[in-house]
């Protein structure tokens, strides 16, 4: 494939979405420059769960062995195990239908460092805080707070839920408060103090009445353990939307007082814990403005109830890398850049926003999971839909829709 001079592509944000895009594009011979606001590539946060849809993509990017070295993998086709909050009795086990599928669990910081290590170092630019951008004559000139500028053909906003690119080109929308908070932290497995009646080697979910649920999973090949508790807050309180706030373990244990001792012993093992308010956003009319587009949480931020947000960011990045490569068959590519970005949007927008919407609804469904087979079926169907997605096929369909048979056939020549 060839269409003259290569495109200059700038990505704001060196997190999961931006780095996956750079790596997937690099694998296809497309250069992407990543601009990260911090002095190093890292992430705050805790454990990160990736479903089979995201794992398939990451393991196709040439880092399979390295990825597995930092991950704990699900076994025996298990997605997750549901236990009764007060007895810890298992009452449902979610399974992958494909025996080759599995989930992967790791620390978010380890994952982004792995992605960065697989990208040529001259494509990652640190200490670059986005200030503004201007579109003119088919170019986007990006200005950074240090006074430097970068001229690109395409600007990608991959800068997360608080996206500066979204605010600058689209809208500065207000967060939608779920009136829930998440307590979460990671602990070395050796510091986990029992006793425990049940096996904790798989992802385990304990839903409880009152919009509460606890999720736990091992990471880093079982060397560390991640735990999160989602609990309600009253409507007169506004929890801050930040990963950096310290929570109080004693407060959480009081909220989980009616939980089984296995769960309480997990949180008793923590000397510290983070807390943050759970918010999402209403969907945007479009992710594309001229030659600027959004991906990941910048485009479709969602609540964490399905553990699907990072996976959707990875699917976005992969689909965009494929779209950029496919655009090389277009002799009028530069004239059609906006059209190619619309191809990507058509391939991803409905699905990713649908996942965000079902994640919002799932916060209510989890409350019904305590003893409700219908709720279990809803969750099973949702996960099957999420894990069986195929971004590559959706991009091909969108290319045909926007460009017709003649150009679409070039992609399979």
Automatic annotation (TrEMBL):
SUPFAM superfamilies: FAD-linked reductases, C-terminal domain, FAD/NAD(P)-binding domain
PANTHER family according to UniProt: GERANYLGERANYL DIPHOSPHATE REDUCTASE, MONOOXYGENASE
Record-given protein name: FAD-binding domain-containing protein
Family per similarity comment: Belongs to the paxM FAD-dependent monooxygenase family.
Span of domain FAD-binding: 10-325
Cofactor(s) this protein cannot do without: FAD
Keyword check for RNA-binding: no
Molecular functions (GO terms): FAD binding; monooxygenase activity
């Amino acid at each position: 494939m060839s269409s003259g001079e290569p495109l200059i592509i700038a990505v704001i944000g060196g997190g999961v979405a931006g780095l996956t895009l750079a790596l997937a594009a690099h694998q296809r011979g497309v250069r992407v420059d990543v601009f990260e606001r911090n002095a190093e590539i890292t992430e705050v946060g805790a454990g990160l769960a990736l479903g089979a849809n995201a794992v398939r993509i990451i393991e196709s990017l040439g880092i399979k062995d390295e990825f597995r070295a930092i991950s704990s993998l699900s076994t025996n086709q298990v997605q997750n195990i549901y236990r009764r909050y007060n007895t810890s009795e298992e009452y449902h086990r979610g399974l992958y239908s494909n025996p080759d599928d599995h989930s992967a669990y790791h620390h978010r910081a380890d994952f982004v460092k792995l992605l960065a290590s697989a990208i040529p170092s001259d494509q990652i630019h640190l200490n670059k805080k986005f200030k503004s951008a201007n579109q003119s004559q088919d170019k986007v000139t990006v200005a950074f707070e240090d006074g430097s500028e970068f001229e690109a053909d395409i600007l990608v906003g991959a800068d997360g839920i608080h996206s500066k690119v979204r605010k600058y080109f689209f809208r500065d929308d207000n967060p939608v408060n779920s009136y829930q908070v998440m307590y979460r932290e990671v602990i070395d497995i050796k510091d986990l103090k029992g006793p425990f009646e049940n096996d904790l080697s798989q992802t385990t979910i304990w839903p409880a009445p009152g919009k509460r649920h606890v999720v736990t999973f091992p990471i880093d090949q079982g060397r560390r353990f991640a735990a999160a508790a989602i609990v309600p807050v009253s409507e007169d309180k506004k929890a801050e939307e930040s990963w950096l706030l310290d929570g109080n373990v004693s407060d959480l244990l009081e909220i989980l007082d009616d939980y089984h001792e296995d769960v309480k012993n997990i949180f008793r093992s923590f000397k510290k814990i983070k807390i943050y308010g759970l918010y999402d956003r209403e969907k945007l009319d479009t992710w594309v403005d001229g030659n600027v587009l959004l991906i990941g949480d910048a485009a479709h931020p969602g609540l964490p109830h399905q553990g699907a947000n990072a996976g959707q960011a990875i699917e976005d990045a992969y689909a965009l890398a494929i779209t950029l490569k496919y655009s090389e068959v277009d002799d009028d590519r530069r004239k059609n850049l906006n059209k190619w970005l619309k191809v990507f949007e058509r391939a991803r927008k409905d699905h990713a926003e649908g996942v965000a919407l079902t994640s919002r609804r799932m916060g209510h469904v989890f409350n019904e999971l305590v003893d409700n087979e219908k709720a279990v079926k809803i969750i099973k169907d949702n996960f099957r839909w999420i894990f069986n997605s195929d971004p590559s096929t959706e991009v091909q369909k969108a290319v045909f829709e926007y460009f017709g048979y003649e150009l679409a056939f070039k992609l399979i020549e």
